[in-house]
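Weekly structure sync - notes
Attendees: PM, LS, DV (DV joined late)
Agenda: review two folding runs queued last week.

Item 1: First target. Sequence and structure tokens pasted below for the record.
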Amino acid sequence: MLEIAMLNQAKPLMSKDSQRSRSGAPGLRSPSGVVVGGIKTQPSAIQLFHSQRAALARLQYAVLQESSLAVLCGPGGSGVSTVMSALVTKLYGASHVVHIDVRQAEVSSQFAACRATGNVVVVIDNCHLATVDLLGSVSEAIWLQAPRASVVLGGRGRLMTLLSRDRGLLDKVLLRSVIHPLSLSETRSIVETRLATNGHACSESAWVVVHQITGGILEDVFRLVGMAQVVAGSQPDTTIQADDIEQIYERLHAAAA
């Protein structure tokens, strides 16, 4: 068994919704890169898991259709923002892409840059935080500036509730895609690979418990395994057991309460 007293000062495992609603830095993509905070950068490769790759493939199809609207949903921590960023990366050089967060107030100036371009894709993240009126007005502004633009809305399940309240916008949805939690085998691969990187081992029941506790939510899997690595790091040559994972979770869950 691992000694886990050191976790008293650790960060909570399961973060609150407001903390979990993180988005990649939004920006306007131009042929020379992504503009984020006034600094141009080149898109980087993004590792995706099965459900995320499937969602990305469907979105890539949807944005090829002019004046289309696609929706990507998933529970917090499942990788919606990651897939949205991967889509932007895939489209680099082939389309004019505007990548924004729905919470940005001034977006019309970014849409105006699309007016004279051909293949336009607008990717909007964290749409579950919007209001019904905001989603409708933003979409209308996009198509007013660029009538043939393809729009992708990403967010948690509440996004579909918002769309259901705007029949006109809902009728325009060409594709709906959902990111599912990790499979048991994917969780096992992550746990064993990350622990092995630091020279640690775990029992078979340990990664099963990780999957049960996290429900296969990617962000929570990484966080729980990360804490197990911290604990095991002070006790080399110790195999992490299921009881260790449960104790780590209990301590962190209690700290979050």
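Item 2: Second target, run right after the first with the same settings.
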Amino acid sequence: MVATRRVLFLASMAFVATVSYLWGHVDGDEGRALGLLNESFAAQSLPEVSPVLARERDTYYPNTEDLAKDEMRVIACGTGMPTTRAAQAAACFLVELGNGDKFIFDIGSGSAERLSSLQIPYDFLDKIFIGHLHGDHFGSLGELFIGGGLMGRHKPLQIWGPSGPTPELGTSYAVDKMVEMYTWDLAGRAGLVDFRGFKVNVHEFDYRAENAVIYEENGVTIRSFPAIHSIDGPVSFTLEWNDLKFVFGSDTFPNNWFLKYAQNADLAVHECFVAVPDIVTKLGFTPESALLVGTQIHTAPEAFGKVMSAVQPRMAVAYHFCKDWDTTAQVHDRIRKTYDGPLSLADDFMVWNVTKDNIRVRMAVVEEETWSPPAASPAEPPKDADKTQFSKDTGVPLDAMVYSDFIKEGKWTGVDEVLRGVYQEASEALGREFPYPEKEQ
């Protein structure tokens, strides 16, 4: 009987020790010994809890914490798949630096909504680096272009992206066609709103360049190197600042360039695709397609682990899978077959605060019913010159940018009186005259 009790006691102790070590692995922390037994039996050392004083929370609330001058903050604004869903937007990572700079890496479908939830002034969200031209990696570019221009970005959007094997497969072509797609939208805004933010500057670079500097300013250096995904053209990026290094793989099959240029990374973000069995059962792929897509076009969890074992970053970040209750464990377990280092299984609004001494991993709690964030620069009234310039740039006739006589005749004048009252209200509130338009617009 005594022997049986001893065996049970030792088994219980082993179980507790195992749980203590693995605590945090569900979201991918490195496995930290919590000292669970010591803490349980040392109640006298617990901090005093006040019923009225605030306590530190292990959660990030945007715009409530200063960013230290030597600190990097990375926020996942999209970690999911091309198949859009409410739970996860597609690829997008925001990097904020203590010098005030902010950079967006990929802007996949749905991610503009995540950026809006952070309530960052849009003048600060003007630099975008696109790894390749799949919709789940730049599908929200149009939303940020139009929405950001309406919500306080008063300068052009700056976009960096790779060339392609032909001009039609490069970033400049894609962005030019996106802007062209919005011709009607822009023609209907020119002369009605501050139009300074509705411009795009594209900085296209050679996708074949290895470790090439594509951005260098204010102490920040961003380099690109080739990636392997789908066809020629994709790239990965490194950002270096203040002796900190962020690596973003975008989408890629494991490759020698990543192994070489991701060395000494503080935070290394690399795709880690859905496990092959779940591609079949969840996405409905045939086994043949699942094997090709899950292991040859994308990086399988087991291969992600091999990459990170070779790179040895301070924190490895896996993304590009559906982080669900019934799929996350399989991704985690397959990674752990080949990698036992620090790991985050990324989810939308996961936050990493990176300094030379520490990497803190949390989740953000954000607003959903957001309006425009504070403007970082003053807005300007609409200008007729913007309409004239737009007509000149696009070839759209000026008379096509106003209502035709046919549409004017459809206006109901029964609302004129109440609308004049709105103008009068504005004039009285602001102390200057806003004349009511007597001619139909």
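Discussion on item 2: Residues 191 and 386 are 6 Å apart (CA to CA).
Action: LS to circulate a short write-up before next sync.
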